[in-house]
Amino acid sequence: MTIQEAQERVDAWIKQYGVRYFNELTNMAILTEEVGELARIMARKYGEQSFKEGEKADLGEEMADVLWVLLCIANQTGTNLTEALEKSFEKKTGRDKDRHKNNPKLA
User: Fold this and answer.
1) What is the pLDDT of residue 56?
2) Which residues of 22-40 are buried (b: 16+ CB within 10 A; e: fewer)?
3) Quick one: CA dihedral 66, 71, 73, 79, positive or negative?
4) Residue range 76-102: average pLDDT?
C-alpha cells in the first residue's frame, strides 16, 4: 500500500464507520497519547523498564496506531504525505548528505 492509498483508506473508513474526523486538536492529543503508548513499549522492551503483569507488548500495533492518527491529521488538513515526504528527503539530502558520514560519533 502506498502512502496515498493509506490516506484514502483511512478517509473511507472514517466516512463509513467513524461518522466524522475528530477535530484537529483532538487528533493531535490522540497522536500524543499513541506516541506515549509506543514509548512505553520501547522503554520496556529496549530500555531498562520491565513489563507489568498483563501489559500488552505489540510494537507493530502501536506504530500502526501512530500512523493511523497521523494519516487522519494529514487528511483533515489537506496534506499530501507522499509529497511532504519527498520534500523531506530532498531537504535532508541537501542538508545532511555528508554530515552523518563525517560524524566521528557514528564511526
Assistant:
1) 84
2) beeeebeebbeebbeebeb
3) positive
4) 95
Amino acid letter, 12: A
Cβ count near 44 (within 10 Å): 15
Instruction: Give me the residue label for grid cell 507489568.
Output: 52
CA gap 52, 14 in Å, rounded: 33
Query: What letter would DSSP give residue 22?
Result: P
| The C-alpha cell that represents 92 in the structure block | 535532508
Report the distance separating Cα 37 and Cα 64, nearest Å.
Answer: 11
Q: What is the CA radius of gyration of the chain?
A: 18
> Which pLDDT value is given to residue 11?
98
Which domains does the chain carry?
Answer: 3-81 (1.10.287.1080)
What is the arithmetic mean of pLDDT over 88-94?
A: 96
Per DSSP, the three-state class of 14 is helix
Q: Is 71 exposed, middle or buried (0-12, 13-18, 19+ CB in 10 A)?
A: buried
Average pLDDT rounded to a whole number, residues 41-48: 96
